[in-house]
Specification:
The protein is α/β, with parallel strands linked by helices. Helix content is about 35%, strand content about 20%. A seven-stranded parallel β-sheet has the order 2-1-3-4-5-9-12, sandwiched between helices. The protein has a three-stranded mixed β-sheet with strand order 6-7-11, covered by helices on one side. Strands 8-10 form a two-stranded antiparallel ribbon. Strand 6 and strand 7 form a beta hairpin.
């Protein structure tokens, strides 16, 4: 197959390009650095020429209200360019539980992106993933002050980016779902517990204090970020991933 990966140089995109190429597919990585601009549409027609499938793993440069405009404009541009190019399958990466947290601007923006696909002219698949292992340090940094990290006890099933990539590759090379697939890690952990596991693995002396009002995830209610009953559970455990990365 010929597959265009929009956002093909980022954390997920670069791994996805390599995975698909290793499987024998003709892959075009598209990003600003290759002259493709989703907001203006520049370079899109060239990047999608002859593509059977397009996978969109781009991210908004901001997480505030401006992300709504980003996903509205970029989503419409990509759908129109895909229709012109005869693309048969549009795939997008989204977030588990994204429609259950309307208080977050970025989550509402991702819901808008999903809705554009659902009502667009092309068969589609949406892969919703839980929080990436790779982002846990950043999550802790948001609420770290004077040797204390404040985190809510929000339930999560964090996932390795490599496992997200494999799910995307499987979906991109199969028949369109015309629906959504949840992918999640194998371990159900509270965010404050993840913080303690992470700091202990790094021999970091900071202390985690459970604070259900701290940080972005404080607005999340219940277990909406762990994946639905039909979620695909990935094989990589967080502690194993931490140990492997520290050893490497």
């Amino acid at each position: 197959m010929k597959i265009t990966v929009i956002g093909g140089t980022g954390l997920i995109g670069s791994q996805l390009v390599a995975t698909l190429r290793n499987a024998g597919h003709d892959v075009v990585p598209a990003s600003l650095s290759s002259g493709v601009d989703l907001l203006t549409g520049a370079g899109l027609d060239e990047a999608l020429a002859g593509a059977d499938t397009v996978v969109n793993v781009t991210n908004s440069p901001t997480f505030d209200e401006q992300s709504l405009d980003f996903f509205r404009t970029s989503g419409n541009n990509l759908l129109r360019a895909g229709e012109r190019a005869g693309v048969r399958h549009q795939v997008a990466l989204s977030i588990v539980g994204v429609d259950q947290v309307p208080e977050l601007d970025y989550y509402r923006a991702k819901v808008l992106q999903e809705d554009l696909l659902r009502h667009g002219p092309t068969a589609y698949s949406i892969v919703r993933a839980t929080q990436f292992f790779e982002f846990m340090d950043a999550v802790m940094s948001w609420t770290a002050v004077d040797g204390v990290v404040r985190l809510p006890a929000t339930p999560l099933r964090p996932i390795a980016s490599a496992d997200v990539v494999q799910a995307l590759a499987d979906v991109a090379t199969a028949a369109p779902l015309d629906g959504t697939l949840d992918v999640a890690g194998p371990d159900l952990l509270a965010l404050d517990e993840i913080g303690r596991i992470t700091l202990a693995a790094h021999d970091d002396g900071r202390r985690v204090v459970t604070d259900d009002r701290a940080g972005m995830f404080a607005t999340v209610r219940g277990d909406v970020l762990v994946g639905g009953p039909g979620a695909r559970l990935a094989p990589t455990h967080y502690r194993d991933w931490l140990n492997a990365n520290l050893a490497g």
